């Protein structure tokens, strides 16, 4: 019985191993077929490997879900997944991943993965791919995007030539939190790209067998190598010293400098805020908003900007935006995508080279400037080097609009500023004297009363005036008593007393005879 059970268990294990082996073979032999120059497949069409996790929380993903790398940041080769495809129409293809920044609050983190296409052939004048290649996107706030780039700060597209036959592309984890939904390869010379159109592309048909043609051995992509003509380098774009720029809003020598009030990155109709505003041919524009409502009529205007750490050359064009009623709130609202302004009037253009980490200047047509909020849109007019501009998130290097006018320009501007922001009239606070506390009575020293001296005039004996009656203290007391008694009797009582007093005084005043 135990032997029979052991045999059954071995049989089941063998069957399971055979099924697993068949599944792996089927997965390895599932070829996505190119049709009309397009190949589209879901990443979950292959089993997740390593720390790739199947996600279904985001309802705006396509297919049955998406894979998000939950492993550590690092080099290629971890969690490698291989996708086979068969090319029936050889030619130059561009690779795009529908991806998302799955966590964090930064557009330069959790935003990249590794890819490798061993059988692809480098295309002249396109970025060469040598083995594992970092691919990234910078859309934040997070949203699914088909934007796929390589080379930091240069934003190069990912392109390869694929001969007819069987090929594969490999995907490996690089940045924790980077989510991938779908992969598309298309002949970019024949298929027009847009975010909405690619979201609607049907999945490619799948064959369980290979075509039998090894694409890596084909000569379909043998490009004719010719000697490149010697091209003289372009003149450098005007450079300015940021140290001598006036302060924002300060008008000096009939010139005022305005820093941007808002800027944003437009990538294929998706607007986002970012530290660097990338500009690339056709699909990447920089939007910069200024407030010119207080600026008088101008005779000259210039746009100052600082490049990031990538040099290059090409033709840069500056347009007026069709409106300035935009902000970052419309980034992910599909109903508000029309709020992103279009490029209208060309206001400035320059062909030349730019230097990394340098302040540059482009002359603008001042007659086209309007009063109020305006948007300047920077585009690359030719399929040459892309470049990046430091945004207003770095205040000291933010884009600036330099506007100049006539002799009364600064006086008019300063008056406009004063009228718009009148100084507040500050009423002086009333001065309140602190109360003086009286000294306590106990602390005062006693003061002796001051009795003025009494001067007694000499008595003239011939004076016939009414006799002067000297009243002593006792007499005054008696007199007071008499007054208290009142009546005529008091007068007759006092009369002899007064006469006696007068007689005594006159006698004492007589000279004494000498015997």
UniProtKB/TrEMBL annotation:
<feature type="signal peptide">
    <location>
        <begin position="1"/>
        <end position="27"/>
    </location>
</feature>
<keyword id="KW-0732">Signal</keyword>
<protein>
    <submittedName>
        <fullName>Uncharacterized protein</fullName>
    </submittedName>
</protein>
């Amino acid at each position: 019985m135990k032997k029979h059970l052991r045999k059954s268990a071995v049989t089941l294990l063998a069957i399971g191993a055979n099924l697993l082996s068949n599944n792996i073979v089927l997965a390895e032999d599932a070829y996505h077929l190119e049709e009309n120059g397009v190949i589209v497949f879901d990443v979950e069409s292959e089993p997740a490997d390593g720390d790739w996790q199947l996600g279904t929380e985001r309802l705006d993903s396509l297919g049955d879900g998406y894979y998000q790398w939950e492993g550590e940041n690092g080099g290629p080769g971890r969690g490698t997944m291989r996708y086979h495809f068969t090319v029936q129409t050889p030619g130059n293809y561009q690779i795009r991943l529908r991806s998302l920044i799955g966590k964090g609050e930064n557009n330069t983190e959790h935003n990249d993965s590794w890819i490798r296409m061993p059988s692809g052939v480098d295309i002249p004048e396109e970025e060469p791919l040598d083995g594992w290649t970092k691919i990234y996107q910078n859309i934040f706030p997070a949203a699914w995007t088909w934007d796929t780039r390589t080379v930091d700060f240069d934003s190069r597209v990912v392109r390869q030539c694929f001969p007819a036959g069987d090929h594969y592309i490999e995907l490996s984890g690089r940045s924790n939190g980077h989510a991938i939904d779908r992969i598309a390869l298309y002949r970019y010379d024949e298929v027009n790209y847009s975010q909405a159109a690619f979201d609607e592309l049907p999945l490619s048909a799948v064959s369980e067998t290979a075509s039998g043609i090894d694409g890596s051995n084909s000569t379909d992509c043998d490009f004719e190598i010719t000697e490149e003509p010697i091209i003289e380098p372009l003149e450098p774009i005007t450079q300015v010293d940021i140290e001598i720029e006036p302060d924002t809003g300060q008008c000096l020598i009939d010139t005022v400098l305005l820093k941007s009030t808002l800027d944003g990155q437009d990538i294929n109709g998706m607007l986002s805020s970012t530290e660097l505003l990338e500009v690339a041919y056709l699909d990447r524009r920089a939007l910069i908003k200024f407030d010119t409502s207080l600026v008088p009529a101008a005779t000259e205007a210039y746009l100052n900007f600082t490049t990031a750490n990538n040099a290059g050359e090409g033709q840069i064009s500056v347009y007026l935006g069709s409106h300035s009623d935009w902000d970052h709130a419309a980034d992910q609202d599909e109903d508000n995508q029309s709020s992103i302004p279009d490029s209208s009037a060309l206001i400035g253009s320059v062909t030349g080279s730019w230097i990394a980490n340098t302040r540059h200047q482009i002359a603008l047509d001042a007659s086209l400037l309007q009063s109020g909020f305006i948007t300047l849109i920077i585009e690359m007019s030719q399929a040459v080097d892309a470049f990046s501009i430091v945004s207003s998130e770095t205040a000291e290097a933010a884009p600036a609009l330099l506007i100049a006018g006539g002799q009364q320009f600064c006086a008019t501007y300063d008056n406009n500023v004063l009228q718009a922001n009148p100084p507040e009239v500050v009423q002086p606070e009333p001065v309140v004297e602190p109360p003086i506390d009286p000294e306590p009575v106990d602390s005062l020293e006693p003061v002796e009363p001051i009795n003025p001296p009494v001067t007694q005039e000499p008595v003239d004996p011939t004076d016939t005036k009414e006799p002067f009656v000297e009243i002593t203290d006792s007499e005054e007391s008696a007199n007071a008593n008499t007054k208290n008694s009142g009546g005529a009797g008091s007068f007759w009582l006092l009369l002899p007393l007064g006469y006696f007093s007068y007689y005594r005084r006159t006698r004492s005043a007589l000279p004494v005879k000498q015997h």
